[in-house]
């Protein structure tokens, strides 16, 4: 019954982990902590520390925890920086996804939900973005997410893998006051940083036409989602390392570099 959340120590992944817990579904996290925090993971949830690029570790984790499905949230999400770091972006988001899928195939795990992005659409020339809107990513980040979707699709054809890709836009808010978006580049952290500093948030966007499709979901339906948004930065960053349980495999895994 157990599900694996890659990137479960990150902003979105930590919410996914909480949703599994609320539903009473056992969950295990695989995270290299390159941009996440072990303190984001609730007590009682095992964190395997290591990279999705380590196929042996991924396979061992799937088998040891009898995983039946994966929510693949781990990724390098900085679209702007990806232009300067294309190889790193492709390695984390494309190679990482391919390694994960191969490990799943070896372990007989046939369900995956993929954290894709609205960045696969680029800047569509339309008022409403729907699922069938042509994909035209404008950065290595968007391209890497689109390739990730293709990997799932093609693996589905080849092996019967059941998959879905979520293309959300700027995710915002916190379903738990201790979990927040720590990104130095995302829109809403920048807006709230400016507000808390007494400055007027500035945007360099040239259009306000783009709207997102219903599929561009947030990570939580908690009624406290919006109310807690403004408290994101007030919450103290969780301490690391924590005393949370880790597997022996995790202890030997080599984390990839923080970006
Ligand atoms: N936040 C958004 O607005 C947004 C929008 C669209 C898509 N996404 C996608 O959702 C996912 C999560 O976003 P987030 O905002 O939670 O980012 P985040 O940086 O907070 O979380 C990513 C997590 O993945 C982990 N990670 C990164 N590379 C890894 C690797 N190779 N192996 C194991 N763990 C690794 C990080 O340590 C971190 O805990 C990303 O894939 C991102 O591209 C985010």
From TrEMBL:
Q: Where is the NAD-dependent epimerase/dehydratase domain?
A: 3-200
Metabolic or biological pathway? Carbohydrate metabolism; galactose metabolism
The record's listing under Pfam families reads:
Epimerase
Please give the superkingdom of this protein's source: Bacteria
User: What processes in GO biological process is this protein linked to?
Assistant: galactose catabolic process via UDP-galactose, Leloir pathway
Sequence segments annotated as region (Disordered)? 202-259
**Where are stretches of biased composition, namely Low complexity?**
202-227, 236-259
Fetch the PANTHER family from UniProt.
UDP-ARABINOSE 4-EPIMERASE 1 (PTHR43725:SF53), UDP-GLUCOSE 4-EPIMERASE (PTHR43725)
Q: Which family does it belong to?
A: Belongs to the NAD(P)-dependent epimerase/dehydratase family.
Q: What is this protein called?
A: UDP-glucose 4-epimerase
Task: Name its species.
Answer: Arenivirga flava
Question: What is the taxonomic lineage of the source species?
Answer: Bacteria, Bacillati, Actinomycetota, Actinomycetes, Micrococcales
